[in-house]
Amino acid sequence: MDDELAALAEAHGVATHYEDANQRRADVDPDVVVAVLAQLDVDASTPEAVRRALAAPKRPPSTIVLREGDVLDETDPGGDRAVELEDGGRVELPAVLPPGYHRLGTRTVIVAPRRLPPVPRAWGWMLQLYAMRSAESWGMGDYADLATLARRSATELGAGVLLVNPVQAISPTLPVERSPYSPSSRRFANPLYLRISDLQAYRDADDATRAEIDALRPPNDTELIDYDAVWTAKAKALELLWRRQEHRAPEGELLGFARFCALAEAHGPDWREWPPAQRDPATATPDPERVAFHAWLQELCEQQLAAARRAARDAGMAVGVVHDLPVGVHPGGADTWAVRDAFAADVTVGAPPDAFSRLGQDWGLPPWRPDRLAEQGYEPFRAVVRSVLRHADGIRIDHVAGLWRLWWIPPGEAPKRGTYVHYDPEAMLAVLTLEAHRAGAVVVGEDLGTVEPKVTEALHEHGMLSSAVLWFQREYDLPDHPLIPPEKWTASAMASISTHDLPTVAGFLAAEHVRVRADLGQFEGPADGEYEAADRERGELLELLKQEGVPADDLVTGFHALLAKVRSVLVLTSPQDALGETRQPNLPGTTDQYPNWRIPLPVALADLFDDPGVRRAAVALAAGRPPAAGGNGP
Q1: Which of 165, 203, 335, 517 is the most buried (most CB within 10 A)?
Q2: 120 with 492: CB under 8 angstroms?
Q3: 277: left (phi over 0), alpha (psi -120 to 50) or beta
Q4: Does 175 sit behind a cis peptide bond, omega within 30 degrees of 0 on the bond before it?
């Protein structure tokens, strides 16, 4: 690659080469680098343009990042030597600033704690909340089911933590987006999970209205969860209750989100396809009545999410409810409409080619622009983290390596024709640490797959947890990649047997993950080799059980007993694993070919806690970890 183009790319954080999944250097085509630079408003289309861009004066950093106790001794470009503190005070430099977001002239100063407090040892559940159907819920799990799970898991099973699938906002349109990892907004909650009968408006309604609402309830015994039926029913019920509510005009970020929802009802879920005047928040004209309605729904979500969190705390959970933050948002959703200047709207993110996806992956999500984040003092990222932690005791960051770099795919290109764009991890981690510190929350980074070692090291340095999954815990630097024994697992981790994207315990033992992928034609050749590999992995895990003295007469319980022996402070399992469910919640690389995010639990929520498999798993995992305060344990 031309040296000048390479220098320009480096100045803007655009990679010209990277290390692939096989630890080999992969060079990025120059035209891909030029295309990505263009998405950052950098013209590199000709050698002359590259030289002009290199010669342009460099602006000082828009954001200064410090850790608690650091001395700030800088002069703003405007000559200012005083910092305006977040609380309204003013400090002359040099000075040690308190944690917070401050201003030095035109620049933002972020001061964050050096690390978060230690995370208590606990076991708990990884929940797909939609799958938890109870006698009171409407066709899928809801926020009240989350409260029940927290309370009963703590008091009856001794659990100390619940990790919940993302419950961020959808567009209020049909068909409903099923994937919790492609929300319309990461700043607001999903009203699809509201428990109608728990609303004060429902309790205050007259008998006729309650009867009319009760008649809307969809069945709870469908083979797969019907999101459209659930939302249609709940939307009608909420409309009936709304007619009796006092209307209040929303403000701030909530106003922008509610305006999007009102417009989406009229014009569809993707603002890029709306009439031209409605695409711009400055000229859009949503119905004020509908704006107020959608703002009200968010108030209801906040109330029920807060109730679930209180249930966990009142039951004495050591950690509590941990919410999941997706890596991005829908490109035509509420966040890109309201704060679009923070996104590279024409780019999608994904992953380069590897052994599992030889053509690379395109997740269809637009990335933050690193330059705009810095210019805005990371406020867009702050708002997202803060919104999750408003009703959480912890946050899990999906694809945490994205705080360092994301694989950008330019418009019109295939997934493999992309490159990495780098972010400022110190700033991103400072925001995360500061917000978690203020909320008293734990932070877990999902660092599975091909992730640079510095990512995991930085998480641990700041008191955050990494992720550890039994299927992947191997010594990859040794021949044949032997399994890592439990006593050598990372202590600063959230450990589990599997994840929502991987086979369940029973599915793994039966090679169900191979059968499903073979039936769907996901393998390039015959599936015999895949079955052999699955059988070999099964044998290795059975040998590990033997080495650890774990009985193998009941393998589902055996794997939970093996997990209980790991050093990691948090150990989690899913109800699907404990129940012996063979179907995994999501099969990557599929949409409608597999019932992703639609599979309910095979038992009702009320029966979950007395299921023999669940009790055995809970007994195994509780070993070595104190039960929730006030809980009796299984």
Answers
A1: 335
A2: no
A3: alpha
A4: yes
DSSP category for residue 213: H
Considering only CA atoms, give the Rg of the chain.
25
258: left (phi over 0), alpha (psi -120 to 50) or beta: alpha
Q: What is the DSSP letter of 177?
A: P
How many whole angstroms from its chain centre is CA 212? 37
Orientation angle between helical segments 207-214 and 227-242, nearest 10 degrees: 170
pLDDT tens per residue across span 289-301: 999 999 999 999 9
Q: What would the two tokens of residue 365 be?
A: 């999500």
Residue 60 neighbours by CB under 8 Å, 6+ apart? 77, 107
Report which of 27, 6, 14 is spatially closest to residue 416, judged by C-alpha positions: 27
- Give the Cβ contact number of residue 211 at 10 Å: 10
Buried b (16+ CB within 10 A) or exposed e, 342-356: bbbbebbbbbbbeee
Q: How far apart are CA 576 and CA 369, in angstroms?
A: 38
pLDDT tens digits for range 489-531: 999 999 999 999 999 999 999 999 999 999 998 888 899 999 9
Cβ atoms of 584 and 509 closer than 8 Å = no
Say what the pLDDT of residue 354 is. Answer: 78
Cα–Cα distance, 362 to 350 (Å, whole number): 4
d(CA 496, CA 67): 32
Contact 570, 624 (CB under 8 A): no
d(CA 269, CA 371): 28
Nearest-angstrom CA–CA distance, 299 and 191: 10
Looking at residue 625, what is its pLDDT?
83
Task: State the helix-helix crossing angle for 288-314 and 227-242, rounded to 10 degrees.
Answer: 110
Alpha helices in 224-321 (DSSP H): 227-242, 252-267, 276-279, 288-314
Quote the CA–CA distance of 162 and 312 in Å, as a whole number. 9
Say how far apart CA 404 and CA 402 lie, in whole Å: 5
Ranges assigned E (strand) in 133-204:
161-164, 168-169, 185-189
What letters, b where the CB count within 10 A reaches 16 and e where it falls short, cover 240-268?
bbeeeeeeeebeebbbbbbbbbbbbbebe
Give the separation between CA 263 and CA 285, rounded to whole angstroms.
8
